[in-house]
Amino acid sequence: MRRILYTIGFSLVLGSSFSCTSSSSEDPLAALLTSPPVVSSVTPQIGTPAQNNTNAMYSATEVLIKGENFGVDTVVRFNEIVAAITLNLGTELYTKVPDGAYSGFITVSKSGGSCLPNTKTGVNCAGMEYFIDCYAATNKQYGSEIELKQGSSLSVEFDGQETKAFHTDTLLSSRNLTIGCESAVTVRVFDRSCKATDYVLQNDPIIPFPAGVATQFYITADSKTCSLVL
């Protein structure tokens, strides 16, 4: 009887030992593979894709993403645009704003994961808001941007041949910008990914602006007072 009890006890202890060893070796690996990434900071949170517009060339903004559990098969997206990762340190990702990026979200997903379109949520996905600013790359060379709200008008005075920077609010519907000036003006309008369209030496131009976007633009004029209506 003693020999039987001893055998049963030894078997229980031995089985428990194997169970503990197996659990401790598998849990960290399982957590690494199944836990979602965590994004704690994005620096800077405002940037621009590469700008190769006439008379204005700026490099894409370099971005540092900090967090944890990024994995090795990591994908960084600006909304749906995939960005190249220049360095992955596990808790830090280095990338650049890709061509075609626009304001919305920057996301990190790992192997087996995916992010829902234009959000920061999904499976094995994390992210933060990110803002595209076409004017910031110039170090505000034309001074502070002037805001023009939809349905409103502005009267702006130009001193000599001067360039001023403007932006609209986010338009609820497509609208036309109407510029009235005693002299011809040159207007540069940026799309949401910082590609520019130039209207050179136009008299009282009427320029279409798209819905759902806060459009940035420049106006260059002589010593005149110009009216802007949106």
Automatic annotation (TrEMBL):
Signal peptide range in chain numbering: 1-22
Keywords in alphabetical order: Signal
Highest taxon, organism lineage: Bacteria
KW Signal (keyword) present: yes
Keyword Signal: yes
Name recorded for this polypeptide: IPT/TIG domain-containing protein
Native organism: Leptospira kanakyensis
Lineage of source species: Bacteria, Pseudomonadati, Spirochaetota, Spirochaetia, Leptospirales
